[in-house]
């Protein structure tokens, strides 16, 4: 099992390096983008039978968690409820969850180091308005969905509350709301699985064609009006130029960036122990790495470190590879609880479509709309991923802020909506 985990770790860390190298040598690969290629590779790798899948029994034991302590599983193994393959699957899930968490939390401050926060302040009002449109879109769609599927799904009021959590903070909010509403573990697993399936398809669309299509009817993003900034943006190699990172000077800069990011993550991790609630701990960690990353960017000695953004994008590709490989597309063919699946589909896709429509009505630009949808639907870790494909640094802090607000208020919104519907 240990050898399998080591090989898997080397795969997750090595493949993004190769893909980045490929994009530096191939104009066609560069046009597609490292993140998109990595995501596609992850989807293929996770669905060709190399990675073991959880048995039904292990899935029920995990109840939405990405792995548990082996001490918890041994009694089930001794009783024959699960088998040794499930132990390997559990170990892989723990590795994937750990690697995802570490890679994205290291990437966020790395990417923030090179940002100009003063620019973002000019975009704050527009970003918050886009957040408001996102919440309105969610409320419209889930209430319509509730009216459609109310008679076909038991305890649909709970499902409605859970879906509110999906579109305001992703799985962490979904988990918290389901616990608060005492949702059956099997229903939680199904909703979470359907969300992952649908979300994987939509994310691939966001990473590839969304910007081109939305630009047909939404305004373009307005960058800084300063001429020097415009010139810099046209010649800025941040998103595509990884050259020089393996030189002596490049390695020194990368080590500085990595050590500072590790320090920030260490502080965030330490502060998270102020509470024993897992969801709250994640909020504290995200808030801390974001805040300290922003503060660090205000110091010229940090802001001018070369290749900090590229190193952050490397960790983003690692995150993308892992998360994509965890998506089980086979579930699309074997969909139980059809009406439940349709309710999740309506909530996720419908909210996005209504949001885009409202953005068109109120003339919110393409990039702000996309980053808001990303932050709400996929939470903060995906913001730098999508910003990279948009080639727009200026929306990153906006997206992170929206995602954090979604974390903060999503639980209240979801639980409140559920009990409101129950009382109708």
Task: Tell me the distance between the termini.
Answer: 52 Å
Strand content: under 5%
> What's the pLDDT, averaged over the residues?
80
Major sheet details: none
- Indicate the percent of residues in helices: over 70%
SSE-based structural type: mainly alpha
Rg, please? 21 Å
SSE pattern, N- to C-terminal: HHHHHHHHHHHHHHHHHHHH
- Spans of at least 5 consecutive residues whose pLDDT stays below 50 are 226-239
Task: Give the count of helical stretches.
Answer: 20
Number of strands: 0
The global form is globular
Task: Tell me what you see in this structure.
The structure is a single chain. This protein is mainly α and 424 residues long. Helices cover 76% and strands 0% of the residues. The chain contains 20 helices and no strands. The chain has helices spanning 2-25, 27-32, 34-45, 56-62, 70-78, 84-113, 117-149, 156-169, 171-180, 185-208, 210-214, 227-235, 248-272, 278-297, 300-303, 308-325, 338-361, 366-378, 383-390, 396-422. Helix 8 (156-169) packs across helix 17 (338-361). The longest helix has 33 residues, at 117-149. Residues 226-239 have low confidence and may be disordered.
What topology emerges from the helices and strands here?
Blueprint: H1 2-25, H2 27-32, H3 34-45, H4 56-62, H5 70-78, H6 84-113, H7 117-149, H8 156-169, H9 171-180, H10 185-208, H11 210-214, H12 227-235, H13 248-272, H14 278-297, H15 300-303, H16 308-325, H17 338-361, H18 366-378, H19 383-390, H20 396-422
Helix pairs in contact: 1-16, 3-16, 6-13, 6-14, 6-16, 7-8, 7-17, 7-18, 7-20, 8-9, 8-17, 8-18, 8-20, 9-20, 10-17, 13-14, 14-20, 17-18, 18-19, 18-20
């Amino acid at each position: 099992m240990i050898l399998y985990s080591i090989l898997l770790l080397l795969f997750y860390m090595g493949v993004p390096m190769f893909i980045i190298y490929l994009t530096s040598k191939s104009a066609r690969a560069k046009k597609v983008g490292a993140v998109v290629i990595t995501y596609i590779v992850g989807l293929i790798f996770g669905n060709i039978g190399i990675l073991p899948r959880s048995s039904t029994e292990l899935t029920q034991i995990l109840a939405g968690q990405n792995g548990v302590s082996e001490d918890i599983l041994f009694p089930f193994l001794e009783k024959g409820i699960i088998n040794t393959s499930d132990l390997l699957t559990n170990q892989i899930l723990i590795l994937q969850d750990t690697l995802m968490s570490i890679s994205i939390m290291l990437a966020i401050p790395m990417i923030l180091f090179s940002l100009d926060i003063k620019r973002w302040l000019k975009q704050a009002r527009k970003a918050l308005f886009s957040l408001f449109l996102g919440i309105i879109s969610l409320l419209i769609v889930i209430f319509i969905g509730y009216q459609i599927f109310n008679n076909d799904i038991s305890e649909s009021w709970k499902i409605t509350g859970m879906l509110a959590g999906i579109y305001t903070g992703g799985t962490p909010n979904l988990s918290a709301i389901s616990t608060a509403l005492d949702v059956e573990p099997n229903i939680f697993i199904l909703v979470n699985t359907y969300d992952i399936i649908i979300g994987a398809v939509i994310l691939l669309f966001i990473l590839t064609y969304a910007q081109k299509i939305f630009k047909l009817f939404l305004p373009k993003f307005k960058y800084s009006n300063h001429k020097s900034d415009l010139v810099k943006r046209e010649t800025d190699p941040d998103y595509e130029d990884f050259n020089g990172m393996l030189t002596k000077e490049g390695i020194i800069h990368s080590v500085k960036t990595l050590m500072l990011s590790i320090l920030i993550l260490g502080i965030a991790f330490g502060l998270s122990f102020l509470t024993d609630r897992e969801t709250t701990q994640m909020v504290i960690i995200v808030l801390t790495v974001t805040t300290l990353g922003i503060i660090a960017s205000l110091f010229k000695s940090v802001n001018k470190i070369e290749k900090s953004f590229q190193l952050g994008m490397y960790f983003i590709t690692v995150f993308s590879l892992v998360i994509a490989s965890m998506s089980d597309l086979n579930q699309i063919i074997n969909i139980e609880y059809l009406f439940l699946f349709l309710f999740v589909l309506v909530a996720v896709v419908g909210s996005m479509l209504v949001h885009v429509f409202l953005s068109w009505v109120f003339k919110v630009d393409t990039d702000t709309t996309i980053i808001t949808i990303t932050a709400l639907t996929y939470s903060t870790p995906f913001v730098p991923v999508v910003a990279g494909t948009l080639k727009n640094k200026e929306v990153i802090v906006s997206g992170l802020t929206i995602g954090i607000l979604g974390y903060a208020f999503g639980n209240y919104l979801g639980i409140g909506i559920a009990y409101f519907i129950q009382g109708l």
